[in-house]
Amino acid sequence: MFLWKGIVMKRNKIILAGILLVMFVIWTLITEVFGLIASHFLPSPVDIFNSVMDLSSILGSAILASLKITMSGLVLGLITGIMVGMIMAYSKAFMDIVGPMMEFTRPIPVLALIPLFMLWFGLGQTPQVLLIALGVMAIMGVQTYEAIRNMPMVYIRAAFNLGAKKRKVFTSIVMPYIVPHLIGAVRVAAAAAWGLDVAAEFMGVQVGLGYTMVIQQIYLNVPGIVTIVIIYSILAIVLDKLIQLAQSKLTHWTERSSVSFEGIVPVKKVRNK
After folding, report:
1. Which segments of the chain have a pLDDT < 50?
2. Phi-psi label, residue 181: left if phi above 0, alpha if psi -120 to 50, beta otherwise
3. What whole-number distance in Å separates Cα of residue 30 and Cα of residue 115?
4. What is the pLDDT of residues 144-157, one digit of tens each?
5. Quick one: which of 51, 65, 135, 212 could link to 110 by a disulfide (CB 3.0–4.6 Å)?
6. What whole-number distance in Å separates Cα of residue 75 and Cα of residue 124?
7. What are the pLDDT digits (tens) for 44-93?
8. Is the Cβ–Cβ distance between 49 and 226 less than 8 Å?
9. What is each CA distance from 273 to 44, 266, 270, in whole angstroms?
């Protein structure tokens, strides 16, 4: 079984590498070799390489600044959102107070709050971090609450029947149960955090990849813009892979399909002779 999973994973990696190689070849042919698409619409790989060289003096500091802002907002939003979701599920009084507020504010686009954040918190990294944290908290708060609500009641009833108290049930049964169900939400929140970082860096701070992208846009430097987009994509993919790695460590005790429903067959009924 483990050998077969290893073969499947290796095959999938080879297929992915092949797809990426084909896309790169097509990209090179239509932009650099045949010139079917103008560089101001889609830069060629050579243009991207030259852009990286031109921006090399500022890319390091810009990446570090964006990482600091994004990770700070992500961690703050994850902690706050999970705590709010768990307290709403634990306390009906808290749910009655905070629940309607969240239902009212959750549909509001976070990006629409940028002018207010600039008025309330001024210019700087603080409003940027808070904007990212707010977007992440909205995702994690709802997902945590729904994960607890969808938990099979048989576990909770069994614990109460054995004499466990409410707090013990929550910490020993509910919290471990929802961990695997929150990993997907964490991955969604991490991807959203990078998108919020791009918008947050439009708030007047002259650091980060988002600010660098604005400068490239002002000068109509399309290769520079595409370079920043590629860097954002690489950072988001790396963070997602790290979350998946943490998932395999934190939820190794859960049974899940590695890829799809492939290999799962119905159990045949045994006929009594």
Report:
1. 1-2, 258-259, 269-270, 273
2. alpha
3. 42
4. 988 888 888 888 88
5. 135
6. 19
7. 899 999 999 998 889 999 999 999 999 999 999 999 999 999 998 888 88
8. no
9. 71, 21, 9
- Measure the CA–CA gap between 78 and 183, rounded to whole angstroms: 11
- How many beta carbons lie within 10 A of that of residue 86, not counting itself? 20
Sequence letter at residue 86? M
The Cα–Cα gap between 61 and 75 comes to 21
R_g (Cα) of the chain, nearest Å: 24
Owner of token pair 């708030």: 203
CB atoms within 10 A of CB 220: 9
Q: How far apart are CA 226 and CA 219, in angstroms?
A: 13
Amino acid at 126: T
